[in-house]
């Protein structure tokens, strides 16, 4: 019977292409990784890699075996993460990462619910990009991350998630922009103007939100600053709920595009490590997120 060390070594060498890189990734010596792979090959009765220079090139059988081995390794890590999480029964501090498109009303609702539930809790809301938030989840310094759905069946990291709801997005310009007067606005006209895009959207590949339509693109980390800049120049694509106060004050105007549907939207998910939802505090947070979305949709 194979061991988990053998499976992990095989997967690492397969993905990284060399024993040295796999050893560095696993935090082991090259000799140890090589021994695990050789032992696995002896067990299977066939070679998994051919050495070409410094590269370990997978054989046809290794290619066929990889997906199953990867699944076993992933399940093992998920089991370990869940078993470790079960020890976190005494919760005093909760760290929640959120993307720029997260409705602020949702954050305020969760904060209120948490403090009503336990006044002694310390709750930290951390604005992070998707990659940063997922990495913090893996490190254990973030408990839940509210992030946009990428349209894929699996996440980039060893985490799970729950779908929350959809966020509507619109296109906006300053109230004095000449684009406001155009009734049949086309995307090509936006290409002539400066496009302002949030740092989060710049790293998120979804429809028009991160597509750099204009040759001149300015990336801005702070959403409020982005709105102030758009008041003076250019255009942006942002969640409608976030932009409502700016529109109501007459400082920004939502524009309609011929090529884009009236309701451009994408999903928002709550990401967390395996086993986290078994802990009462985090289970309640996930439930409250669904409650807020149901209430706001009615």
UniProtKB/TrEMBL annotation:
The cross-references to InterPro entries, in alphabetical order and at most eight, read: LysR_HTH_N, LysR_subst-bd, WH-like_DNA-bd_sf, WH_DNA-bd_sf
Domain (HTH lysR-type): residue spans on this chain: 1-59
Q: Which PROSITE patterns match?
A: HTH_LYSR
Sorted keywords for this record are: DNA-binding, Transcription, Transcription regulation
* Single GO MF annotation: DNA-binding transcription factor activity
Family, according to the entry, reads as follows: Belongs to the LysR transcriptional regulatory family.
Protein's recorded name: LysR family transcriptional regulator
Species of origin reads Photobacterium sp. (strain ATCC 43367)
């Amino acid at each position: 019977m194979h061991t988990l060390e053998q499976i992990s070594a095989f997967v690492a060498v397969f993905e990284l292409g060399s024993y040295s890189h796999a050893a560095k990734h696993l935090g082991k010596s090259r000799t140890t990784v090589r021994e695990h792979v050789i032992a696995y090959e002896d067990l299977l009765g066939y070679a998994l890699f051919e050495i070409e220079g410094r590269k370990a090139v997978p054989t046809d059988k290794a290619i066929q075996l990889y997906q199953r081995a990867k699944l076993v390794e992933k399940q093992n890590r998920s089991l370990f993460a869940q078993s470790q999480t079960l020890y976190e029964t005494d919760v005093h501090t909760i760290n929640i990462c959120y993307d720029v498109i997260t409705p602020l009303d949702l954050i305020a609702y969760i904060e209120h619910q948490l403090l009503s539930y336990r006044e002694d809790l310390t709750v930290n809301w951390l604005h992070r990009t998707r990659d940063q938030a997922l990495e913090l989840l893996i490190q254990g310094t973030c408990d839940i991350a509210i992030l946009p759905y990428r349209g894929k069946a699996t996440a980039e990291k060893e985490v799970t998630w729950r779908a929350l709801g959809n966020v509507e997005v619109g296109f906006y310009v300053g109230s004095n922009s000449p684009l406001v007067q155009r009734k049949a606005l086309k995307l090509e006209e936006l290409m002539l103007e400066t496009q302002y895009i949030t740092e989060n959207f710049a790293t998120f590949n979804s429809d028009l939100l991160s597509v750099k339509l204009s040759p001149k693109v300015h990336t801005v980390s702070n959403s409020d600053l982005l709105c102030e800049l758009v008041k003076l120049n250019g255009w942006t694509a942002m969640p409608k709920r976030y932009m409502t106060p700016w529109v109501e004050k007459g400082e920004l105007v939502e524009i309609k595009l011929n090529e884009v549907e009236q309701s451009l939207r994408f999903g928002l998910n709550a990401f967390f490590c395996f086993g986290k939802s078994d802990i009462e505090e985090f289970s309640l947070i996930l439930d409250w997120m669904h409650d807020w979305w149901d209430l706001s949709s009615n």
